[in-house]
Hints:
Layout: E1 21-26, H1 29-41, E2 45-49, H2 60-64, H3 68-72, E3 75-79, H4 85-97, E4 103-108, H5 116-119, E5 123-127, H6 131-142
Parallel strand pairs: 1-2, 1-3, 3-4, 4-5
Amino acid sequence: xxxxxIELEPTDWQASDGRPRVLIEHHDSSIGVAVGNLLTAEGYAxxxxxxxxxxxxxxxxxxxxxCERAEEADVVFFGLELSDVGDxxxxxxxxxxxxxxxxxxxxxxxxxxxxxxxxxxxxxxxQPLTRDTLxxxxxxxxx
Length: 143
């Protein structure tokens, strides 16, 4: 069965009543929604963005160094494609402009050594992502 990628525009914070805020940037909106649902059920506030793809390649974070949701986030869950130059630029911009915000990067184990420099200072969650590895990473990042 083929999974359908849901069209997902950047969203406002869901359930942001003082809960820790997790910005979910994922290239596959179906996975991003599942991650968001899991985190919401665990007591986190979430917001979604698909990176440059959601804005026709014009991510304000990369263009102007600004992103309202990244500025408000307590942690960013990054599931964009590091093989894509634009997505690597988003990660670099996140780390540069929001150095105090922890970034969790989801990546296949075999690709971790390839992107060692880009991953410096990030929390890495190896694929396949599980509920436990996600929650442990978010908890570690927020400490």
